[in-house]
Amino acid sequence: MTKVVIVGAGVAGINAATKLVDNNFEGNIVIIDMGKNPYDRLPEEVMTGMLGAGGWSDGKLTYHTSIGGQLSKYCGDEKAMELMDQVINNFKRFHPKPEEVQCSNPVAEPDFIKPYFGLRLFPVWHVGTDYLHEIGKNWYDYLVDNGVEFVWETKVVDINFETQQAFIEPEGQPYGYFNYDTLIFGVGKSGIDFGKQLAERYELPTEPKSVQIGVRFEAPQKHFQKLIDVSYDFKLYRKYDDKGVSLRSFCTNNNAAYVAAEHTYGDISYNGHAKKDESYRNDMTNFGILMEIRGIDKPFDWSRAAVEKLQHEGVGLFYSPSQRVPSKTSEGDYVKTHVVNSMDPLWEAIGDYASYIHEFIEDMEKVFPTLGKDWGIYMPEVKYLSPEPLVNYEDLSLTRFPNVHFVGDALSARGITVSGAQGTYVAEALLIDEDHKEKIKKYPDFIENIEF
Ligand SMILES: Cc1cc2nc3c(=O)[nH]c(=O)nc-3n(C[C@H](O)[C@H](O)[C@H](O)COP(=O)(O)OP(=O)(O)OC[C@H]3O[C@@H](n4cnc5c(N)ncnc54)[C@H](O)[C@@H]3O)c2cc1C
To answer: pTM of the predicted model, to two decimals?
Structure first.
């Protein structure tokens, strides 16, 4: 019986397993994750455990082929939309109150943001962090009831693609391993270093990547309400094509909006999420101002060096021109950050690229007249785009190891819907394979007639 080992119980891995289970896949499915099951996972465990970073995120499910990373390039636009539908339906299916999943779908750019910004128009479903926990539990129960084996609090520390073994280090236990026939590698951002190590060791060919760096901007929501009424997760953008730079507002959170510290490579960077429950309302808005810079040699090393420069005694930095103070997390503690009295550290970390972020904020002050200096920024926000291994586009398998499939943020995704869609896409390919093998057994001449 085929043994599928999924490394990472994140959005990508869980959607892959669900597609297999829903289609009565005959093999064994084992999911290994270094985090906890949804019943034991703590709010501060932002990146690990059931549904991965997606399980403690804001749960904004974006629905557009140019948002959230790469999908269409593998399967075309039409298939990409269909895969994203499947992921959104899964989130609704395991939701205790699916009718509460709201969709925002702006159809026109409002005049008042022109000529300073463009606005990306796309639908987004908003789930909210608190419901995600409940979804995680229902989803987990469904997979366990259908025979999926979960191995929690266990880190995969090495994988031998040749002998087909995933080596694990369960807490306090001796080193062990799982054999696999098929491996789905969905370790997300928290496993990006691991993916990079494997790519280097096996000299996997990769696709070129850009730098994605910026700040998390925070202000009272009232200043942005006019735009939020048009688009909940508004994406303001601008491009400097001649400089290889583009900027966008990213992952906007409103109403009960909290800034979260992310731990990556021992450094702190920032992100945000929002709660649905009214008791958490703080009437704040936060979003990333994220800059994509193309053409930087070794973008990964460049980003890491910049992030390191924005650390002070183990935390990132906060600046406000109006003496705003860092806000509290949804657990009631202040966001871990060090307050500085200017944006200078940003210039020191990323050089003149900081001027694009400065201008973006200045222009927001013009477009949103009540904003003035009533804002603060957490530095840095970063998206480490791991070197993207070259995969076969029809099933996201490594060109050198066709039974190893990379999915989600570990491949080229940057959001929940695309990560889940990549997991689903791989599962569909495995199901075709399985179906194919079965038919060959039953009808030996089948292979002559099938077209792939
Ligand atoms: C605070 C926050 C808010 C976000 N909000 C949104 C949002 O609103 N909308 C959106 O689209 N995206 C959002 N994102 C991004 C989104 O969560 C990710 O893009 C998505 O979860 C990626 O899915 P994935 O399956 O690739 O990885 P993940 O969901 O990160 O899952 C990876 C899993 O792998 C496990 N793992 C890693 N390394 C190992 C190892 N060596 N051994 C065993 N297990 C391992 C981790 O424990 C984790 O559970 C947010 C992210 C954060 C951090």
So the answer is: 0.77
pLDDT computed for residue 435 by the predictor: 65
* Token duo for residue 421: 């869609």
Over residues 178-232, the pLDDT tens digits come to 999 999 999 998 898 899 899 999 999 988 788 999 999 999 999 999 999 988 7
Beta strand 245-253 with 236-240 is: antiparallel
* Site residues for ligand 1, CB cut-off 6 Å: 7-13, 32-35, 46-49, 52-54, 57-60, 62, 68, 155-156, 186-191, 194, 251, 260, 262, 271, 273, 408-410, 413-417, 419
Distance CA 282, CA 263 (A): 24
* Pairing of the two strands 316-319 and 267-274: unpaired
DSSP 31-74: EE-SS--TTT--TT--SSSTBGGGGGS--EEE--TTSSB--HHH
Distance 46 CA to ligand 1 centre (A): 8
- 419 in Cβ contact with 407 (< 8 Å): yes
Closest CA to 51 of 12, 86, 16, 83: 12
Q: What would the 3-class secondary structure string for 116-159 be?
A: CCEECCCCEEECCHHHHHHHHHHHHHHHHHCCCEEECCEEEEEE
Instruction: Indicate whether 130 pLDDT > 50.
Output: yes
Determine the angle formed by the axes of helices 416-442 and 11-22, rounding to 10 degrees. Answer: 30
The torsion angles phi and psi of 305, rounded to 5 degrees, stand at: -65, -40
Looking from the CA of residue 233, the nearest atom of ligand 1 is: 8
Q: Is the dihedral of CA 179, 183, 186, 191 positive or negative?
A: positive
Residue 172 pLDDT grade (very low, low, confident, very high; cuts 50, 70, 90): low
**Measured distance CA(393)–CA(400) in Å, rounded:** 13
Q: In sequence order, what are the residues at sequence separation of 6 or more whose Cβ sits closer than 8 angstroms to the Cβ of residue 206?
A: 199, 387, 388, 389, 390
For residue 272, the ligand 1 atom closest to its alpha carbon is 1
Name the token pair of 329: 């997390």
